[in-house]
Records
---
Amino acid sequence: MHHFFTTESTAPPVIPLLWYGVMVLLILMAVWASLRYYQNEQFRKIFRNLQIFQLICLYIWYFAFQLPWSNSLPLYHCRLAMFAVVFLPDKWKTKQYFALMGASGAVFALGYPVFDPYDFPHITSFSFLIGHYALLVNSLVYLMNHYDKTLLKKYRIIAYTFVLN
């Protein structure tokens, strides 16, 4: 388990083609499950609680080992989307924006994963995977249940994105 919890940086792990294929298949399965079960309360609770658990574990890891803010920066786009989709009230413009960004951003992050510089398997790699899959599901479930095309105009999406960046 020392290898799993090490704080000694190496290089980002290389992902073999088989495991990359599994990751892409899991994206498709997450989208399918979200589209099929978005109205199922238990399904929603499982992924919401998984996201909360992942965030708690991640921040415990960062604070316990006093990792630099450059590694644990809470302002990554996906991390902000995770907090927004889980904690903001429904039907807010900001939550809808982050759900849109979370769904697309999770696909991009999982399609071209850049893990923290620790040998795989490592807690940060699992956190990356669990966090982005849960974000994808939570974002899609929110959008399927609460998307309101009148809530966000194109100019507002562009403005939010510029401000965020």
---
Amino acid sequence: MNTLDTEFTQIIKENKSTIYTVCYMFSNDPEEVNDLFQETLINMWKGFSSFRKQSHISTWIWRISLNTCISAERKRRSREFHSLSMDINLFEDRGEDNKQIQMLHHRISRLKPFDRAIVLLWPENLSDEAIASTIGISV
């Protein structure tokens, strides 16, 4: 494994929960969440060698994750989608905490993509400037 591979692997280990959180907020389907996660990793790898470190790595990861999920949502909305039912439901009700999480997920998922991104970034204690920079909007 070369230095670039090792560095990328370490960055993924340190930030996988952030990537997964973004993907989870863009889909109710566990398989699609996993697909979004993998697509995000692919996009990160493609751009990793050209990452100039002008911003913090977490900002770059948020940006790639959000852009990947927003692009996937646009594609999904532009074509008809038929989901297959599974015998297992990873989102099934398992108590009061889960009900609140599902309610929060439902409400966030109804927001427009950029509003959803702001809601996801706000609890990260980022400044307004950092959030705007990550999403690519003005403060």
---
Amino acid sequence: MQLAARGLDLLLLARRSGPLGETAKEIRERFRVQVVTQTLDLTAPGLDSAVEALTDNREIGLLVCNAGATHGAAMLLDRPVDAALAMVRLNCVAPLVLSHAVGAQMRTRGRGGVILVSSMAGLAGGAFIAAYAASKAFEIVLAESLWYEFGTAGVDVLGLIAGATATPAMLRS
């Protein structure tokens, strides 16, 4: 909302079309900015092609990776391995693919910004959240690395480490 309040047009991606559409409608009505939406599962195969199609003819000035998911609060071996792999695709593969796609554009322009939202869980291992904590650690290290790499081209990168936040996904866990 704060970006729209500053007059920035938005491209919003989300897995569920209902909440995505509601959010876009509210932003358009309140702030009179353009909002393009795309329902996209960031854990699905072919993410790189989908992202390329979305960003190909758009100038993305700021990327905010803030996808949330229920981490499952269970021992790794008590859940299917596919649940852990989905967490890795969401918190490792998706930020990497998105950063690569928009980072190339930003580097060419010599400006832009990337915010990768991680979690305090990524600072140390924790019982019942092994895959979640490990994937969030990847995000932190990716942001730290890109801070330098992208920064040499005038692109700012921030790794935002959030504490416990009352999101729908956290409440489900």
---
Amino acid sequence: RYTKKGEWVLDAFLGSGTTLIECKKLGRNGIGIDIDSQILEVAKQRASSEKGNSTLEFLNDDSSKVNLKNVLKKNNIDKVNLILYHPPYWDIIKFNDCKGNIANTKTLEEFLKSFEKIVNNTAKYLEDERYIGIVIGDIYKNSEWVPLSSHIIQLMLKKKYILKSVVVKNISETKGKQN
């Protein structure tokens, strides 16, 4: 919907690689960044099993510090056409002990500052008039609802991004909280 065949997608929290798998299936090129080298290897393996001729780049780095200029130059582009952010939902899952992992921040303020550093470092590579997609969920912590999505929206609005839509996923079928 937001890109055409041959365009470039950047995923700053690649995880197990779903974004780059879909890029390959849909004829998009992709750059995926993940701070965890082990999960990045899983993403590479998953993407390599898919059919397609897309260019996929896998970077083991901290998205708040990664230098994307060399990867862009290597692929003869200056900017990407879509950025996706699917950060950890603060500290509800301890993924790893990697330095810079925002899931390891102690406070909500630290989490938001860390996310903002990632946006500052990566969104400058987004082509003008293009889109950023953010996948984020709210959490319960100490018997209190923490509206992470609202905090992230406010952060992006303060940075002068224009909100185009909010998609609320119906999680009634999710079994994670049934007990």
